Amino acid sequence: MADKLTHLNEHDRPTMVDVSNKEVTRRSAIAEAEVRIPGHVEQALRDSGHRTSKGPIFDTAVIAGVMAAKRTHELIPFCHPLGIENCTVEVTAVPGAIAIRCEVTVTHKTGVEMEALTGASVAALTVYDMCKALSHELEITNLRLVAKAGGRRDFTRT
After folding, report:
1. Residue-level pLDDT at 4
2. Catalytic amino acids?
3. Relative to the CA of 53, which of 95, 149, 151, 152 has its CA 20 to 30 Å away?
4. In the chain, how many domains are there?
5. Three-state DSSP class for 48?
6. In a domain, 103, yes or no
7. What is the predicted pLDDT for the residue at 1?
8. Range of the domain at 45
9. Domain of 70: which CATH number?
């Protein structure tokens, strides 16, 4: 791990990281999130084919997650704008929850961890928004980076 925060300059002021001397490599990141849902909501979603009056929950969350990953640099102040080459968001029902997984890839000088985390976050927020009429007992949990590859070091959560 670095001894110094990367987004501070020599005067300890916030700054964007200079990536001009970094090597262009293929980089990828995977993030996950979960929306915990009470039993009555889980049953209502099963009965409706995972739709609410707002529309298809899973499809809408996928679109929102991809859109968010692509616009991460507009939301997180020091993220570099990236030409994302691929972004997949998977939304699945699991017992007691809706699981979200976002994978982002790019060939660039900087990684896509924040893009994957943003995609998973916004997909989870979309699920919450679409289900809140059924219950406010929903809970977004377990947002985390699962893996990253490319760049200075790889990471896989164990």
Report:
1. 64
2. 129
3. 95
4. 1
5. coil
6. yes
7. 46
8. 32-156
9. 3.30.70.640
Residue keyed to tokens 């989870």: 124
In three-state secondary structure terms, 138 is: coil
* Domain annotation covers residue 20: no
Per-residue pLDDT of the chain (158 residues; tens, 9 = 90+): 456 667 777 777 777 777 878 889 999 999 999 999 999 999 999 999 999 999 999 999 999 999 999 999 999 988 999 999 999 999 999 999 999 999 999 999 998 999 999 999 999 999 999 999 999 999 999 999 999 999 888 999 98
98/93 Cα distance (integer angstroms):
5
Q: Give first-to-last CA distance, the chain, whole Å.
A: 17
Which tokens go with 124?
A: 């989870």
81 close to 73: Cβ distance less than 8 angstroms = yes
Assess if residue 137 is contained within a domain: yes
Give the whole-angstrom CA distance, residue 33 versus residue 130: 16
In a domain, 43, yes or no: yes
